[in-house]
């Protein structure tokens, strides 16, 4: 007894056309829905490289679909080669996605507490399969992302693509630059080793220099007993206390995994939307001065997204992923892990990460309020308002001589400041400490720790007799020692350092453990002095030797 | 359906370029599979020795006396039982699951809904406080809503040099009476190693009073 | 276009091979890293030991008499020291907990080391982080090979030792010398440290005021001198009610017959 009749359209189709054609039609319908407008035949014609039929179904995913809506349907032929864009914007987004994926995987094994963060790093590197691989990829991607974003900004400046109507695109781009720097810097703190803690302390402590203007400083003195209370207040907010502690680490972790990514994703959306809205600008020489024809691409100048651009992008994904994986495996790039963070000991020659060396260089010039807060503030604010003050209509290089020269000067200054940020400039202690720091540095393994353990034969050696060293490892090490002494001697202008003796003493200390003493003896105004540093080296510790 | 795609999809022959795209697509799928496997390997938690989920090594001095009360090892979440002739002769033991004398490590978690059962000396058996499942020292269920006997961990007997002398047999206790069964420690055993990452489920036991 | 597709496929294949290669090598790399970091822990421990520990325990862990016991010692690693103090865990746990919490007072087994050991772990208010205490413990445990290579001590029987046999004859006792032995002016028996001679005062063990009288009534059939003698050489034989079995058992070996006789003579005057 049929109370109701089950009506399945598919059964009707099968009856009408036969099983195989009906199923194929169903699959085709599914594919069309999934791609928002392309059936199996359409996709195949894309893959074959057929010219687009009319009407062109390939524009439908761009018009109706979600994923393709943001991507342009076609590009101008002049913007598809390497020049003028060098794929740098694309690379920036690629690395953002790359970092998010590798970062989420690392989050599986990390807890942002000073009690366990370092142990988590050791666990990731020793007990998690592919932990080293994931961590190195994340670190490598971070460095490349900062580089890609910086180069992208430089390219955009040089080709004048910040001019009308793309001023706000540039504005959001500078914001994204700040997000990238913030993401990289906040991630730097998370391993909680000596390098993390002190490099980020140097950077973050600048907020303490925020001045408390008159009359607030008097009020602050009265109410809080602190006339610099604004700086103190902001510092406590940022670092979770006067110095980095468990609060600070948690705040920077939240910034790194939640706060900054959220803001960055929103502004990437805005930025890219505006890029597509106005179209990728053509090379400056291809347009009439003052005109922006990027959006109106003649039919014969079009490169369609499907299949050309999508194939290229897939190819770049494959290529860049391969290069990153190669770099961290066979290429030997490894993220460093220094000893556990010690809040009471700052290593000699602590430096900021390379993209902040310019800032550290500026800080060596003078007053930290001006050079640490005001000058960077001026620089970034200039970047923000650049398109609104530099309103010359032409993007041609010949018409932008001043702008290009200014850009060149800025690049050169940045390089100089970056050099000044390194420990080689204006940071030094006494000659003996410099020599010892050359052999056993406090920020990275250095030549002594990298020498193969078996080649450190027990005995006492003088640096100047390096050629008679019994093993090649010792020979190389003593030669470096001698070289460090010579450099210190050359730097010693006042003749304070009359070098007498430079020893390297190697003793057996425990099973598999050697004690090595680096001892420098010299004569100065007060008489004969010695300075020495003990290092213990275990057979297994594997610092890269 | 696509406007230009109403012709049957398989009529046009495949060109070389199209074929190469499919090959590339297949290799991307393979890469995703490889990477997926790598990520699963990456993400699966690993346990060090001494953590629950890892291996616990105990000297033989820790094993309870024959037929004594089971000994509690909370860190490893197991009871150590040492079954002798007294327990073998326990009249409450279900006939379907005769006692095998020897040492075993029984999981502390009740097989009903996950509570930790207790040893009740007065009644000389395990009793679960949540829904009243009751088990003998041998791990056999005698009463209550649980549907099987208690689970055991795979245990190895090691000599002083760490060589394996005996190991709990893996398998399904419902069909194989040797699977998961306690074993007498061979001569020369110095340590027992209980792998809390490898568990053998207890045999089916649903009859009132105990039995398959 | 086709070039890109082909090159893309080839690069993808190369990527897969690299990933497979590192996956295969990963277990070895992880073990290497683990032992590498164990090595670095020992190095860090060596530096910390040099700064904090060598003053009491000696530069090479050989110990300093009366200050700090030897750590580079066989009995720490072969289980003897652990069983002497009744430690139920591993040697590593013993070393780690000693460093973490320190030692507030010398135990009876270490009565020759009267100084306290400072607390080191920040968990208990000390100056070191828990990972630094782990480094130190790893460093101390690294002495295992050299310590186990030391010859096992066979206690040389002291022919003059008091011994536990209560019937052996003792020489004549000198109460005046016994006084000095009791009060620590001579010898290192330290009786006064646990036993007061003032009535009713309990330091660790029972007060010995009036012992000459009470000793006779303690055990049936025992003369006072015999009871006192047994209490010294076999302290566990008879415990006074309300007191634990804490008296050192070493006097039978370490005390000479003359010392024993002098002490008994002295106590018989109390």
Q: How is this structure best described in words?
A:
The complex is a heterotrimer of chains A (545), B (212) and C (270). Chain A has 545 residues and is α+β, with helices and mostly antiparallel strands. Chain A has 3 domains: 9-69, no CATH class; 76-287 and 299-421, Cytochrome Bc1 Complex, Chain C (Up-down Bundle); 431-538, no CATH class. Helices cover 54% and strands 9% of the residues of chain A. Chain A contains 20 helices and 6 strands. Chain A has helices at residues 9-17, 19-35, 40-48, 60-64, 82-85, 88-107, 117-127, 131-158, 167-189, 194-204, 216-223, 229-239, 246-278, 305-328, 357-363, 368-389, 401-421, 431-439, 446-450, 472-491; strands spanning 74-76, 302-304, 459-462, 498-510, 513-524, 527-538. In chain A, the strands form 2 sheets. In chain A, strands 3-4-5-6 form a 4-stranded antiparallel beta sheet, with helices on one face. Chain A has a two-stranded antiparallel sheet with strand order 1-2. In chain A, a hairpin with a 2-residue loop joins strand 5 and strand 6 (527-538). The longest helix of chain A has 33 residues, at 246-278. Chain A starts with 8 loop residues before the first helix and ends in a 7-residue tail after the last strand. Chain B is an alpha+beta fold and 212 residues long. Helix content of chain B is 15%, strand content 25%. Chain B is built from 2 helices and 11 strands. Chain B has helices spanning 16-43, 85-88, and strands at 55-59, 71-73, 78-83, 102-107, 118-120, 125-127, 134-135, 141-143, 152-158, 164-167, 191-200. In chain B, the strands form 2 sheets. In chain B, strands 1, 2, 3, 4, 9, 10 and 11 form a 7-stranded antiparallel beta sheet that branches. A 4-stranded antiparallel beta sheet of chain B has the order 5-6-7-8, with no helix packed on it. The longest helix of chain B is centred in the first third of the chain and has 28 residues, at 16-43. Chain B is elongated and about 80 Å long. With 270 residues, chain C is mainly α. Chain C has 2 domains: 2-148, Orthogonal Bundle (Cytochrome Bc1 Complex, Chain D, domain 2); 175-267, Orthogonal Bundle (Cytochrome Bc1 Complex, Chain D, domain 2). Chain C has helices spanning 2-52, 54-57, 74-77, 80-85, 91-101, 130-141, 144-148, 175-182, 191-194, 211-218, 224-233, 251-254, 257-267. In chain C, 27% of the residues are buried. The termini of chain C are far apart. Chains in contact: A-B, A-C, B-C. Chain A binds chain C through residues 49, 115, 118-119, 122, 125-133, 307-308, 311-312, 314-315, 318-319, 321-322, 325-326, 329-330, 339-340, 509-513, 515, 534-542, and chain C through 1, 4-5, 7-8, 11-12, 14-15, 18-19, 21-23, 26-27, 29-30, 32-40, 42-44, 46-47, 50, 129-132, 139, 142-146.
